[in-house]
C-alpha cells in the first residue's frame, strides 16, 4: 500500500527545477571549450582549458594534425621477404641491362636459373613478360649471356608443358640453333643443346617445334657436332637424338635420311673413330 507521506513525482520535478542554477553570465567562457579551425595550418581543433576563471588563468592547448606517413614497404620486405615474382622481375631487369657490369648480369642470371627450378616460378615467366626478354638475349653476341639464357630457358621448360607451350609461341628454335652453330665456346654450345633437348622433348605437334627444328637445318647441326672433337658435346647430341627418335616415326625417318645414326656409330666406334681432342689429332675418345 503506497505511503501517503512519500513525495510525489511532480513535487520532485518542481524542486529540481527551482534548485538548478544557471550561468549568470552566458557570455563568459566555460572552463573548457573546443573550437574548430578547419583552415588553420596549425591544426583543425583548439582546446581551451581554464581551471580557474577567478584568477583569469588561461591555458590553451592546440592539437596539431600530424601528416599521414606512408608505409615503408622495405621494412615488410625485411621481415617477410620479397616474393619470388618480385625477385624475378628485379633479376631480369639486371640480366638484360647492357649498362650493368657483366659480373652483376651473370649473378642475376644464376639467380634466375635457381628461381625457375620451381615450376610455379617458371610458369610465371609468361605472366611477368620475361619470355620476350629471354628471346632477345639469345641474340646478344656474348657467350656468357647466351650460356645463362639457354640455361634459364632449358630449366624453365624441362618437363613443364605449360612453360614449354608459352616459350614455343615465340618460335625460338632458329635462335637456339644459331647459338649452337655460331658460338665458339664449348660450354655455351653444351647449354644450347640442353636448351634444345628441353624444348623439343614431347613438344606438342600443334607448336610445329619439330618442323621448325628440321626446317632450320637442325639435323645438319647435330651431324656436325657428332663429327666434332668434343666428346662432351657428342654425348649431349646422342641424348638429344635418342629423345627425338622416340617421339614419332616421321622424325625417326628424318634422322635416318640425314645419316645421323651412321655418324653416331662412327663417333663412338674405336675402329671408326672420328678425330677427337682439342685439335682433333687423336682417334681415341677423350674423356673431357
TrEMBL record:
Task: Give the start-end ranges of region Disordered.
Answer: 19-43
* Name recorded for this polypeptide: Nucleotide exchange factor Fes1 domain-containing protein
- What are the GO cellular component annotations? endoplasmic reticulum
In this chain, composition skew of type Low complexity spans 19-33
Tell me where in this chain the Nucleotide exchange factor Fes1 domain is found: 9-125
Can you name the source organism? Melampsora larici-populina (strain 98AG31 / pathotype 3-4-7)
PANTHER family on file: HSP70-BINDING PROTEIN 1 (PTHR19316:SF18), PROTEIN FOLDING REGULATOR (PTHR19316)
Homology family: Belongs to the FES1 family.
Keywords (alphabetical) are: Repeat
InterPro entries, alphabetized: ARM-like, ARM-type_fold, Hsp70_NEF-Inhibitors, Nucleotide_exch_fac_Fes1
Superkingdom is Eukaryota
A single GO molecular-function term is: adenyl-nucleotide exchange factor activity
Answer whether the UniProt record assigns the keyword Transmembrane helix to this protein.
no
Amino acid at each position: 500500500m503506497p505511503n501517503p507521506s512519500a513525495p510525489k513525482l511532480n513535487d520532485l520535478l518542481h524542486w529540481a527545477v527551482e534548485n538548478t542554477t544557471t550561468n549568470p553570465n552566458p557570455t563568459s567562457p566555460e572552463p573548457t571549450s573546443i573550437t574548430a579551425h578547419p583552415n588553420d595550418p596549425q591544426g583543425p581543433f583548439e582546446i581551451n582549458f581554464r581551471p580557474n576563471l577567478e584568477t583569469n588563468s588561461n591555458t590553451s592547448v592546440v592539437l596539431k594534425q600530424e601528416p599521414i606517413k606512408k608505409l615503408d614497404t622495405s621494412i615488410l620486405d625485411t621481415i617477410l621477404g620479397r616474393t619470388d615474382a618480385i625477385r624475378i622481375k628485379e633479376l631480369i631487369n639486371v640480366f638484360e641491362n647492357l649498362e650493368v657490369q657483366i659480373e652483376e648480369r651473370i649473378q642475376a642470371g644464376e639467380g634466375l636459373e635457381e628461381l625457375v627450378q620451381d615450376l610455379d616460378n617458371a610458369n610465371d615467366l609468361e605472366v611477368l613478360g620475361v619470355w620476350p626478354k629471354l628471346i632477345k638475349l639469345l641474340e646478344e653476341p656474348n657467350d656468357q649471356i647466351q650460356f645463362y639464357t639457354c640455361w634459364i630457358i632449358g630449366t624453365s621448360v624441362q618437363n613443364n608443358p605449360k612453360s614449354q607451350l608459352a616459350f614455343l609461341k615465340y618460335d625460338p628454335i632458329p635462335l637456339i640453333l644459331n647459338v649452337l652453330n655460331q658460338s665458339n665456346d664449348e660450354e655455351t654450345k653444351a647449354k644450347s643443346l640442353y636448351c634444345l633437348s628441353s624444348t623439343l622433348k614431347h613438344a606438342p605437334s600443334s607448336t610445329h617445334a619439330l618442323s621448325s627444328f628440321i626446317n632450320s637445318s637442325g639435323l645438319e647441326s647435330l651431324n656436325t657436332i657428332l663429327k666434332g672433337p668434343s666428346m662432351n658435346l657428342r654425348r649431349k647430341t646422342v641424348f638429344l637424338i635418342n629423345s627425338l627418335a622416340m617421339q614419332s616415326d616421321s622424325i625417326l625417318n628424318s634422322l635416318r635420311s640425314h645419316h645421323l645414326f651412321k655418324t653416331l656409330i662412327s663417333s663412338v666406334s674405336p675402329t671408326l673413330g672420328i678425330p677427337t681432342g682439342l685439335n682433333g689429332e687423336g682417334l681415341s675418345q677423350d674423356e673431357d
